[in-house]
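Practice set, problem 2.
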Amino acid sequence: MAENNTTKSNGQISVQDAQVAVVMVPLPAQGHLNQLLHLSRLITSYNIPVYYVGATTHIRQVKLRVHGFDPVTTKNLHFHEFPTPPFENPPPNPNASHKFPNHMIPLLYATIHFREPVCSLVNQLLGANHRRVIVIYDSLMTWVLEDIPAIPNAECYRFNGFSAFYMFSSYWKTKGKPFQPETEIFEDIISSENCATPELWELWNKQGALEGKICSGELYNTSRVIEGPYRVSLVHNKETNGLNLWAIGPFNPLLSEQNKDSNKQHQTLYWLDKQETNSVIYVSFGSTTTLSNKEIEELAIGLEKSMQKFIWVLRDADKGDVFAGEERRAQLPEGYEERIKGRGIIERDWAPQLEILAHPSTAWPMHSDQPRNSQLVTKVLKIGLNLRHGARQDELVTSEIVENAVRTLMASPEGGEMRKRASELSVAVKQSVMDGEVEDVPAIPNAECYCFNSISAFHTSSCIWESRGKPLQAGTEIFEGISSNKNCATPELWELWRKQEALMRKVSSGELYNSSRVTEGLYLDLVAKENDGLNQWALGPFNPLLSEQNKNSNKHHQTLYWLDKQVTKSVIYVSFGTTTSLSNEDIEELAVGLEKSMQKFIWVLRDADKGDVFAGEERRAQLPDGYEERLKGRGIIVRDWAPQLEILAHPSTGGFMSHCGWNSCMESISMGVPIAAWPMHSDQPRNSQLVTKFLKIGLIVRHWACRDELVTSEIVENAVRTLMASPKGDEMRKRASELSNVVKQSVVDGGVNREEMDSFITHITR
């Protein structure tokens, strides 16, 4: 056993004399930046200094998110800006044939220039009385760390931004399904076809050869409570060569207590405060998805016709430079915002997703791991429903689909049951991250890298299952109907992935997930089993559980003031993240659907982030003539950032229309908010399956198989009404609430998630 260099005070493990330093190397996309920022917050709470690196524009973006962090921990958080050469910075294309944010590929290639400054920083830290430097890197940043294994006392750990479920299902499927035990769940897993583009696969393959030389373990933003079985499967996966895997999520703060004293709120949270408990659906598709104009129109109409309250984050995917250029302003149906006034909120900028999901008044999957994340949420955890199944990813999600999904999630017994499961899972996750004693792990000498997987364990395990020819039998029945990965990403991303894939097995000493064993325990175990003992940690939820965190905050976003005036659970929050840009048609349909649903909402309406989020103006999506006037009092349109976590945490938020990016899924689960799932790309289709089919805390707005079909206003309306104003929706809310309670219990003293985080910290500081 290694010498124990940690002490414990007030239930908190602390590293003595900062003998260990951590360098954080995130992928420059908002969801990934945020997850590793939250992980940095968690690690600094152990009195370990963290050096967060990135391009100047992304460090600037991240610093805007630090406000509200505990000053005691932020004193150990250091930011380092590295230069990149000029790169193309095209705006998101809402009408592209593929939802994957291919406009980000030039930015991803530019990050290879971080290689020399990261190596220099590691050497500098080792020369500053640190006995070991730990580098935690995103899985698509492997090539930045090629020189690290040659540095004594430096270790690299890969963060997997996907779920353990996604990772294992992908391994299982791509390897010809070779394993027999516990793979029945993967038999209907969504295919990975079209989940990413050839460009991404090429990028991945260029890095893959390095992985085995670099990685000492893997980290997941998940929890054993959620993905335990898939994490174990990854540990036993031959592809991971026995690396340690840690599920140390949720990374996000558990906000239920955190923000009670907050006086400064986003507008969506004020609005949620005025809504009834579990009455609002939150609609957001992350920061890498851009909806077409037709999709927006159908979604709007569906939300309107559902007659459910909602918050809709309506914005395009982030650009490579998120500060450069104008953003498209999606057009909503004429008079839409006026008609839904008081019932829905359209948010066209940032929204406080975590707070919205945590709100007591409050899952469309979109790309990469998202289709399989949706399967984890819907099929496994059974805390959501699918708007669009993976096999129909090219079909338009009509307003009727949206309407039915929202109504099912928000206003039906099925939705109530999903909310109940989501709440229970949230409690388990929160319990899992609270303090608990753990034993030292065996020492690993010299350099180690740990990979952060920003996807779900469900998506990971389903990919393993898929890549290996669906080998496992027991426990993988869930994967048999899994969404295809086809069109989940672009060729450019696959190329980027392939360029790094060979490196991963050589680099990683373990994997980190922003997940919880409460929700993904099965999938984490499956991933662990397939990774031959590679350490994996489900450290999530990374987001704070806001109930306590924000008690003393004096800042309130406009949405939060509005939520304060809404009935409990009466508002649906609509947001599709920072990588998705809806087309004008998508925006119009969504607007009309929200209006016709007659439900209150907050809609974050903005394009995907650019590579430089501070460069240039963004498109301002157009809404139907008179829309915002008509929905005044019933809905809020947010065209910039919205405090998503606070909105989700608000008691007036009762539903979340989301792209099912894993970060959003974890925030929604931890806050006990059911999801209307509309996957766009990447892991989102499978995330939507997890939420709707397994966790049963949501409904599908548009199935991945129908991804090319317009989501009409009728679909939006039906989805919103189902989620927000039906017995089915009530049941989803009930399940979501129960799941949230389980998640929250998992982070208390002795909780499984707290033990997981302590295990990882003990391991890297041995």
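Problem 2, part (b): a different protein.
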Amino acid sequence: MALLLPHSVFYHIPKTGGSWVRGAIQQAGIPTNEVGVLGPVNMPLIDARGLFLHATPQAVPLQMFVFTFVRNPLSWYQSHWAYCTKNKRWNEHNPFERQCASDNFHQFLRNALTYFPGGVSNMYRGYLGEEYTLPGGFVGRQERLVEDLILALRMAGETFDETSIRRTPPANLAARLDDFQHRCLYTAELLWEMMQSEGHAMRSLGYDREDLSCFLDQRKHSPLPATNHSTRS
């Protein structure tokens, strides 16, 4: 579902901090309602939950100020893998998870590159539009979640308690746990391949201009090709 606020709508893209956003909005005292579409009556519960929580603007078109969040596609894969691995839950009804599931992060990436090239770019496009701009709305970043949520709510004209937002504890930090941090790092080769695969979103959202060395396993580090992190779709 989309989250309906008095003056705006929040669309929750998976693994971009949306669980924290929902909690922070509640803590801030903003009244909300969930709006969405129902799936088939025989849809598995886990799939119905995903349809409810992650409705797109196309599925739930509302003529209000809208906002959502994205994150670096490279960290999206880390987060998704760590979450599924930590919880030992790969949804067999989800084509992406069924095809890509692996206890090994590098194999997970290879599966994604093989079966769903540009998967995050395509998902973002479904929420933001072809140019990744979300017409009539605001695209925040998971990397600066607190400040961008406050900015989005101000832009929408919502009345809220900013202090409560800042005090809302983090949510879903599987990829940052010590047991997973070292397990979901990229080799230079896989980083380069994923940059090419997700080039459209990385370029459009400005992630190609950032320092990407934090994603590398320094124990197996080899230099990236000298291209200033340029990518192609």
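Answer key, part (b): Confidence is low (pLDDT under 50) at residues 38-52, 229-233. The chain is about 40% helix and 10% strand.
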